[in-house]
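Appendix C reproduces, verbatim, an entry submitted by the partner laboratory led by Prof. M.T., so that reviewers can inspect both the input and the predicted structure.
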Amino acid sequence: MGNIVGIDLGTTNSVAAFKLAHTDVVTAEDNTPPDRKLTRSVVALDQGKIKVGNSAYNQLQNDPENVIISIKRLIGRGFNDPVIQEQLSRFGYKITKSTQGTDNSLSVWLGGKEYQPEDIAAEILKKLVQNAQTHQAKTGQKSIINQAVVTIPAYFNDKQRYATQI
Protein backbone atom coordinates (compact mmCIF):
# COMPACT_ATOMS: atom_id res chain seq x y z
CA MET A 1 0.00 0.00 0.00
CA GLY A 2 1.26 3.47 -0.85
CA ASN A 3 1.44 6.48 1.37
CA ILE A 4 -1.10 9.27 1.59
CA VAL A 5 0.10 12.86 1.45
CA GLY A 6 -1.79 15.77 3.00
CA ILE A 7 -1.75 18.97 0.94
CA ASP A 8 -2.70 22.52 1.83
CA LEU A 9 -3.29 24.20 -1.53
CA GLY A 10 -2.78 27.84 -0.65
CA THR A 11 -3.41 31.05 -2.55
CA THR A 12 0.20 32.19 -2.23
CA ASN A 13 2.07 29.14 -0.97
CA SER A 14 1.24 25.46 -0.63
CA VAL A 15 2.65 22.75 1.60
CA ALA A 16 2.58 18.96 1.75
CA ALA A 17 3.11 16.63 4.70
CA PHE A 18 2.86 12.94 5.49
CA LYS A 19 3.17 10.82 8.60
CA LEU A 20 5.75 8.11 9.00
CA ALA A 21 6.80 7.37 12.57
CA HIS A 22 6.47 11.11 13.09
CA THR A 23 5.03 13.92 11.00
CA ASP A 24 7.24 15.09 8.15
CA VAL A 25 6.67 18.37 6.39
CA VAL A 26 7.94 17.94 2.86
CA THR A 27 10.85 20.07 1.74
CA ALA A 28 10.89 21.53 -1.73
CA GLU A 29 14.41 20.91 -2.98
CA ASP A 30 14.26 23.72 -5.54
CA ASN A 31 13.51 26.34 -2.86
CA THR A 32 16.19 28.26 -1.04
CA PRO A 33 16.20 28.53 2.77
CA PRO A 34 14.24 29.59 4.78
CA ASP A 35 11.31 28.65 2.52
CA ARG A 36 12.27 25.02 1.91
CA LYS A 37 8.97 23.72 3.25
CA LEU A 38 6.77 25.97 1.11
CA THR A 39 6.05 25.68 -2.59
CA ARG A 40 4.85 28.85 -4.22
CA SER A 41 1.39 28.41 -5.73
CA VAL A 42 2.61 29.82 -9.03
CA VAL A 43 2.57 28.25 -12.50
CA ALA A 44 4.41 29.65 -15.52
CA LEU A 45 5.11 28.79 -19.10
CA ASP A 46 8.75 28.99 -20.15
CA GLN A 47 9.60 28.10 -23.76
CA GLY A 48 6.53 25.88 -23.96
CA LYS A 49 7.26 24.07 -20.70
CA ILE A 50 5.14 24.33 -17.54
CA LYS A 51 7.04 25.38 -14.42
CA VAL A 52 5.73 25.39 -10.85
CA GLY A 53 6.98 27.02 -7.67
CA ASN A 54 10.02 29.27 -7.34
CA SER A 55 11.15 28.78 -10.92
CA ALA A 56 7.72 30.03 -12.06
CA TYR A 57 7.71 32.88 -9.54
CA ASN A 58 11.10 34.07 -10.78
CA GLN A 59 9.50 34.82 -14.18
CA LEU A 60 6.80 37.06 -12.70
CA GLN A 61 8.57 40.39 -13.09
CA ASN A 62 9.78 39.84 -16.66
CA ASP A 63 6.88 37.82 -18.11
CA PRO A 64 3.70 38.43 -16.05
CA GLU A 65 1.34 37.40 -18.85
CA ASN A 66 2.79 33.88 -18.72
CA VAL A 67 2.77 33.49 -14.93
CA ILE A 68 -0.38 32.39 -13.09
CA ILE A 69 -0.64 33.49 -9.46
CA SER A 70 -3.45 33.19 -6.92
CA ILE A 71 -5.31 30.53 -8.93
CA LYS A 72 -7.15 29.48 -5.79
CA ARG A 73 -9.08 32.78 -5.97
CA LEU A 74 -10.45 31.71 -9.38
CA ILE A 75 -11.35 28.07 -8.69
CA GLY A 76 -15.06 27.41 -8.98
CA ARG A 77 -15.92 30.99 -9.88
CA GLY A 78 -17.50 32.31 -13.05
CA PHE A 79 -16.15 35.11 -15.19
CA ASN A 80 -19.09 37.35 -14.23
CA ASP A 81 -18.59 36.78 -10.50
CA PRO A 82 -18.17 40.20 -8.82
CA VAL A 83 -15.05 38.97 -6.99
CA ILE A 84 -13.43 38.11 -10.33
CA GLN A 85 -14.48 41.35 -12.00
CA GLU A 86 -13.04 43.33 -9.08
CA GLN A 87 -9.69 41.52 -9.30
CA LEU A 88 -9.18 41.32 -13.09
CA SER A 89 -6.85 44.33 -13.18
CA ARG A 90 -4.63 42.82 -10.46
CA PHE A 91 -3.46 39.92 -12.60
CA GLY A 92 -0.87 40.17 -15.36
CA TYR A 93 -2.24 37.12 -17.14
CA LYS A 94 -5.32 36.90 -19.33
CA ILE A 95 -8.63 35.80 -17.76
CA THR A 96 -11.64 35.34 -20.03
CA LYS A 97 -15.00 33.64 -20.25
CA SER A 98 -14.33 29.99 -20.93
CA THR A 99 -14.86 28.53 -24.38
CA GLN A 100 -15.47 25.25 -22.54
CA GLY A 101 -17.91 24.50 -19.75
CA THR A 102 -20.86 26.68 -18.82
CA ASP A 103 -21.68 30.28 -19.68
CA ASN A 104 -20.54 31.27 -16.22
CA SER A 105 -17.08 29.70 -16.18
CA LEU A 106 -13.69 31.24 -16.80
CA SER A 107 -10.32 30.42 -18.29
CA VAL A 108 -6.77 31.61 -17.83
CA TRP A 109 -4.29 31.77 -20.68
CA LEU A 110 -0.63 30.75 -20.89
CA GLY A 111 1.30 30.97 -24.13
CA GLY A 112 -1.89 31.47 -26.12
CA LYS A 113 -3.45 28.29 -24.72
CA GLU A 114 -6.63 28.17 -22.64
CA TYR A 115 -6.57 26.47 -19.23
CA GLN A 116 -9.23 25.98 -16.59
CA PRO A 117 -8.27 27.11 -13.06
CA GLU A 118 -8.55 23.47 -11.96
CA ASP A 119 -5.88 22.52 -14.53
CA ILE A 120 -3.48 25.07 -13.09
CA ALA A 121 -4.21 23.93 -9.52
CA ALA A 122 -3.55 20.35 -10.68
CA GLU A 123 -0.05 21.39 -11.82
CA ILE A 124 0.65 22.76 -8.33
CA LEU A 125 -0.69 19.58 -6.72
CA LYS A 126 1.47 17.42 -9.03
CA LYS A 127 4.54 19.41 -7.99
CA LEU A 128 3.69 18.96 -4.30
CA VAL A 129 3.30 15.19 -4.75
CA GLN A 130 6.63 15.07 -6.65
CA ASN A 131 8.29 16.97 -3.78
CA ALA A 132 6.72 14.57 -1.28
CA GLN A 133 7.87 11.53 -3.26
CA THR A 134 11.43 12.90 -3.42
CA HIS A 135 11.41 13.74 0.29
CA GLN A 136 10.05 10.29 1.15
CA ALA A 137 12.74 8.58 -0.94
CA LYS A 138 15.43 10.52 0.94
CA THR A 139 14.07 9.13 4.22
CA GLY A 140 14.36 5.58 2.91
CA GLN A 141 10.68 4.98 2.18
CA LYS A 142 10.14 2.96 -0.97
CA SER A 143 6.35 2.97 -1.27
CA ILE A 144 4.68 5.21 -3.82
CA ILE A 145 2.40 8.08 -2.82
CA ASN A 146 -0.86 7.10 -4.48
CA GLN A 147 -3.41 9.20 -2.59
CA ALA A 148 -3.69 12.78 -1.43
CA VAL A 149 -5.96 14.67 0.92
CA VAL A 150 -6.36 18.31 -0.13
CA THR A 151 -7.63 20.93 2.30
CA ILE A 152 -10.65 22.96 1.23
CA PRO A 153 -11.27 26.29 2.99
CA ALA A 154 -14.41 26.55 5.10
CA TYR A 155 -15.43 29.70 3.21
CA PHE A 156 -15.53 27.94 -0.19
CA ASN A 157 -19.01 27.56 -1.66
CA ASP A 158 -20.24 24.24 -3.09
CA LYS A 159 -19.04 25.03 -6.62
CA GLN A 160 -15.54 25.88 -5.34
CA ARG A 161 -15.43 22.74 -3.17
CA TYR A 162 -16.44 20.55 -6.09
CA ALA A 163 -13.89 22.19 -8.40
CA THR A 164 -11.11 21.60 -5.85
CA GLN A 165 -11.99 17.90 -5.49
CA ILE A 166 -11.63 17.17 -9.20
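The radius of gyration is 16 Å. Additional entries are available on request from the coordinating office.
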